């Protein structure tokens, strides 16, 4: 079993992510929580292959020092969030107000 077969561990401690998540309207917030619950039950290999979540590297955003790459994934029907992988942890960073802002463009 390789590292990509390990279960994903979620890190929801980023204050910006929390503010974005808690600021969602109730139906969207519930959908986001359902997505996070789903991710928690997946391995990294399952996440990489999941067409609904669409885990994608964001090439247009330069990651901060110490982070290999920033990724986006679909957290609700209309919103994406950003995250990076740190070992078995998915460290969530933001929930975008709309699809285009995830990629640093309007």
Automatic annotation (TrEMBL):
Superkingdom, taxonomy of origin = Bacteria
Tell me what this protein is called. Uncharacterized protein
Q: What is the protein's species of origin?
A: Limnohabitans planktonicus II-D5
């Amino acid at each position: 079993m390789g590292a990509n077969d390990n279960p994903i561990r979620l890190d929801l401690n980023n204050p910006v992510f929390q503010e974005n998540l808690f600021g969602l309207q109730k139906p969207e917030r519930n959908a986001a929580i359902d997505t996070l619950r789903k991710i928690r039950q997946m391995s990294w290999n399952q996440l990489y292959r999941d067409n609904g979540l669409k885990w994608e590297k964001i090439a247009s955003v330069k990651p901060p020092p110490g982070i290999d790459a920033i990724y986006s994934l679909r957290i609700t029907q209309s919103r994406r969030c950003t995250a990076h992988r740190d070992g078995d942890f998915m460290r969530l960073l933001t929930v975008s107000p709309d699809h285009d802002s995830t990629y640093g463009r309007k």
